[in-house]
Amino acid sequence: MAFDFYSLNFPLLGFLLVLSMNLESNSRIRNVIHRFFLYFIFSLSGFYCALSEQSNLGVQEFQGITLDGQSVRLSEVKASRLILNVYGPNCVPCIKEIPALNYLYQEMQKDPKVQFYMAIDPSLFFDDSEVMSEDEMLTKAIPLVKDEIQKYKIQVPTILMKKPFRVSRTNSIITGTPETLLFKTKPFVLYYNFIGPISEEGNLERLSIDQKILFFKRMAGSS
């Protein structure tokens, strides 16, 4: 039977509460009404907390292709933890973050339970992406991404993402770049989201003691 919030008799509940406040001569009845009212409030709160649970907005469907055309479905990654850094072209904070990403990737490779990818929304490369087919967009984006990788010396394995993965301020879980998503894979669930660059530190020696880097490694399960 479905729960109908609007069918609740709030005037009656209010009347009972006011009545209990005026029953000075009968504390037992007053206590019973108070307990009933509190039980109702806590029950209602629990109901709405349960309804607020989200399904991670379709992350189980995230998939893409590598630069050599291999398909990757994120929910099928074998490692128990997955790091997905979202990169965008002409994104200055993304470029400043690359030394930190390269450092983290080299560190994470030592841990077999962690998989690290850089994800790119191919539509960000084109002004007319809405009139392009997905296959056309991916084909045209691959050489552009390769140029970015060579130019900025990106070491993290890169995936060009397919729909429903998109960077959008209005209808996506990823609202901008850079952004780094942390997943547990068994079951596949998003559990942490870093907005903005993890660190813009470029010195290798300082990266190893950078507090942002150390915090990220702890959250990623590899510290």
Give an overview in words.
- Keywords: Membrane, Transmembrane, Transmembrane helix.
- Pfam families: AhpC-TSA (PF00578).
- InterPro entries: AhpC/TSA, Thioredoxin-like_sf, Thioredoxin_domain.
- Residues 53-212 form the Thioredoxin domain.
- The chain is of the alpha/beta class and 223 residues long.
- The protein folds into two domains: 9-46; 57-218, 3-Layer(aba) Sandwich (Glutaredoxin), CATH 3.40.30.
- The chain is built from six helices and seven strands; from the N terminus they run H-H-E-E-E-H-E-H-E-E-E-H-H.
- It has helices at 10-21, 27-51, 92-108, 134-152, 204-207, 211-220, and strands at 63-66, 71-73, 81-87, 114-120, 158-161, 179-185, 188-195.
- Strand 4, helix 4 and strand 5 form a beta-alpha-beta unit.
- Helix 1 packs antiparallel against helix 2 (27-51).
- The model is unreliable at 1-8 and 38-54 (pLDDT under 50).
User: Quick one: CATH superfamily of the largest domain?
Assistant: Glutaredoxin
Number of structural units classed as domains: 2
Strand order of the largest sheet: 2-1-5-4-3-6-7
Q: Tell me the strand percentage band.
A: 15-25%
